[in-house]
Structures are given as C-alpha cells and as structure tokens.
Amino acid sequence: MKKIIPLFVCISLMLAVAPNVSAQGPDGDWVSSISCQNLDQSNAAEITLTFYSEGNGSAAVSYNDTISAGGSRNYYTTDALMGVPTDFSGSVVVSSLKPVVCTVNTQNTGTGTSENPYRIASSSGLDGLEVASAMYAPQVMKDYYTWNSYISIQNASDSLVTVEVTYKNKAGEDVPAATETATIPSYSNTVFYQSSNPGLPSEFIGAAKVTVTSPADAKIGAVVNFYNSGSDSGTAQFHSYNGLSSGATKLYMPRVVRRFYGYNSGITIQNVGNVETTVTITFNFAGESYTYNSDTISPSTSLVLYLPNVSEIDAVDSLTVNNRFGNAVVAADNPEARIVGIINEDNRGNPDDNDGNPIPEERIGQGSTYSAIPAGSETKNLFFPQVMNNVDGIFSGGFYFSSVSNTEGFCEIHFTGVPEAKLDDFPMGAYESKSYYAPNIPHLPDGFNSSVRVACNIEVIGIQNFAAAPDTGKLGDSFTQNNGFNK
User: Fold this and answer.
1) Domain ranges, residue 109
2) Which residue from 179, 189, 220, 482 puts its CA 20 to 30 A from 123's CA?
3) Same domain for 286 and 395
4) pLDDT of residue 10
C-alpha cells in the first residue's frame, strides 16, 4: 500500500478585529481558498482536507474529493458543502495516496474601494519532507512605520509539541525579552502576533527562529504574514510567505524588479547556519549582469535590501520601463554557510517609477512575496496550481520560469482541461527566462482558473502570480506571487 502523503497548509481565516480593542492582526473579515493539483498524469487522486481549529487537536471537519489525473480543484472555505464553521480559524491537512501540491489564498472581504480595500496573499502547502524541527522567518515587524507581522506555526505531528520563538533585530542582536513559547496540539496551529509581543520594541524589523523544544524530533510548518495599515487602498499591502526550514549556499530568485511600472522589489537574506558569511548577489537585467557584495551576516541575522537603494544596479533606471525586470542569484561566500531568502514586490504609486506616467489605481497598494529557491531543488517538471485568465472579469495572472542549466533545451506547457492551449516543444536557452501572461495565451478561455504544468528536458524553476487588471475598479492589494512546485 502506498503511503498517504500529508500536505500541511497553515491558513489564518481571521475574523473582525475592532480597532483599539485588540492589536492582533489586520482589521477585517477574512476567508481562505485552497487550490490543489494532482501531479499524477495517469490516475485520479482521492484527497481529504481535514481542518483543525487553532489550539484544538480534534478535527473540526473533513472534506473528501477526487481530482482527475493531472487535474486541479479550487476549494473555498465559504462553500457550504465543505462544512467549515463560519467562525473557523486554524489549519488544514491535505492527505492523498497520490502526489498533490496545494496553495492557499488568505483574503479579506473588502469591496475594493479606497475606504474598504481588497487584500489577498498566497502561501504554499508544505509536504512531509519540507516540515522541520526549526523554521526561520527572515522578515518580521512590529510597528515598523505602519507595518506589522504574525507567524502561524502548525504542528505536523499527531502529538503535542512545544515551540520557542526567538528574535534578532536588524543589527543581529538577540532580543531575549521577546522570546515566546507555546504548546500546540496535533495538526493544529498557533499564531504569534509581533504587534502583541511586549518584549519587542516599537519600530522593530528583524528575523525570527521557531524551534521545537519538546519532543526534539517533532516537525512543524510555518507561514508568515506581514502587512501595511490598510487604512486606504494605498496602504493595503498584505504579504505571505512560507517559513523556511533549511538553507543552501546558493539561492535563485526568478523575478526581481526596479522601477517597473511602479513596482519595486526588496530582498531579505537570512543566515540560518552557524558561521558568519558575506554574500555575492548577481543581478541580471536585459542581458547585463551587476554584482553586489554584502557586509558580514552573522548567524540567524538578516540582510535587507530595497532595490531602488542598491547603487550597484543604478544603470537599470536608464532602461525602458518594460525592461526593468530580471532575476538574481545569491551565493554565500563561506562554503560552510547556509542561507535562505524571500523576495518582496510592491507598488507605492510613485509615477517616478513609471517614467513619470500615472500608476493605475488598481496597482497602487499591491504587494506580494515569494521564497528564494535553493540550488539543488530545480527539476525538469514544474507545477503551478492556480493560474487565472479574466476570472470574474477582474483577475488575471501568469507564470514565470527560468532555466538553471548551462545547456539549451526544450519545454512544453500544458493547461489543465484546455489541450488546445498547449504550447509544444519550444526552445529554451541556457539560463533563459520565460514570462507568460494568461490573457495573451492563444485558445485559453476567459474564466480559466486552474493549473499549469511545465515539462522540460532541462532543469527549471519558477513562480506564479495574479492580480486585478487595470480599469476593473478593484482597489487595494490583489497581487499574489507563489513559488512553483518542482517535483
């Protein structure tokens, strides 16, 4: 008998938080949706989604379904057929005899006006090999200008675990007064809100480490959300990323931008090893490479870079705005070091970042985060569980992937349920990147909200994204980015 593959998905469906009553989390009513993709191209996958309320090791509800061979399904916690309680806040375990991958969107019920902006962020499910006894959060905040964060920790075992959260500030100094602990029931979760931690000073930005203290060999998963004040659509940024369990000496970042139609990237690199190191970052824009060399990064400390402030890539500003996107490779200079990273991207509405042209209202206040991809995890098959094409006349997105091979190859792209949209054997150059926007793909129908598979004869990595299109009137943060799944 094949082993059931559990997929741990931390979700936070946060209910209304009244201003001046609680400092925990962003205001608003919050719901989630889950997109799951069956990686088996020959057989259907029977799956079970089991929901656990925060702090409760007994299942609140389970939902069974079947995903066709190579297919995908979208699940909404607001769907009455699933039976998820209306006041639910917690985690879910997705189980199957077949290999599946899932992503989760956490979103508010904002109407999309400036006074009540839309907000959404995405994270990825962790399989049994990705959970660990320690998780790292490269970027957390408390009252940092108008930004805060929280960490959702899920117990990936069938017995109680105790965890400890420790913090370092941006200078790499420990903040012992902020250390927190919690005991988490089986498969359930608990949430650590940095805004409610009295041991963290105001205007804090730094890094966190979550460690299992008992039993020492137990495993956990983590999702980190950080968010702007949300007082209007221009401050609606709401980001989500997976906690990271292990590092590498080299990281790939498939997409970075600088002054790109109002969008800018930030990069956070955390040293998760036991030795200090510097890093060398190679940026690639429009066929040109630029090198940045960091100062020393101590163990558990983070390096934070905002690309408009990185002088080594100032030449990017002279490119036409449509060419100000690229990729980056981060290498630890100490071969014994281990690093992890995240890439943030947001739009603050500055027309100077769009060659002086106005920024569409729908893009102002958008923000998203994805995780840097460790060297060695690249594969010849890449999966994207949710790609949108003009869904509800508002949301569209795409995917972006890069070769990490020094040889040329070929790829093909399959769109679930739409064989006529398949892109057959096209050439892929050494280290070449490809970008696809769903509305521009021939034969892909409006309303497509499903999965994509990229199959190559060379190794690739990639990310997926979506957002509200300009002129749709959906104001706030509708922009999400996720890592693709290398399997």
Assistant:
1) 5-242
2) 179
3) no
4) 52
248 found inside a domain: no
pLDDT at 14 over 90: no
Whole-angstrom Cα distance, residue 72 to residue 453? 11
- Confidence category of residue 12, pLDDT binned at 50, 70, 90: very low
What is the rounded average pLDDT for all residues in the chain?
92
pLDDT at 8: 55
Neighbours of 355 (CB within 10 A): 13
Supply the pLDDT for residue 21: 30
179-198 per-position pLDDT tens digit = 999 999 999 999 999 999 99
Residue 308's pLDDT is 97
Verify that 131 and 229 share a domain, yes or no.
yes
- Tell whether 47 and 146 lie within a shared domain: yes
Domain contains 221: yes
Give yes or no for a contact between 4 and 95, defined as CB atoms under 8 angstroms apart: yes
Identify which of 269, 281, 297, 277 has the alpha carbon closest to the alpha carbon of residue 136.
269
Encoded tokens for 146: 């108008």
Q: In terms of pTM, does the model score above 0.90? A: yes
Tens digits of per-residue pLDDT, 332-352? Answer: 999 999 999 999 999 999 999
Task: Determine the pLDDT at residue 220.
Answer: 95
Whether residues 280 and 310 share a domain: the answer is yes
Quick one: pLDDT at residue 9?
56
pLDDT at position 72, please?
97
Q: In what side-by-side order are the strands of the sheet with 250-257?
A: 288-293, 279-285, 325-332, 250-257, 373-374
Nearest residue to 35 (alpha-carbon basis) of 435, 371, 387, 342: 387
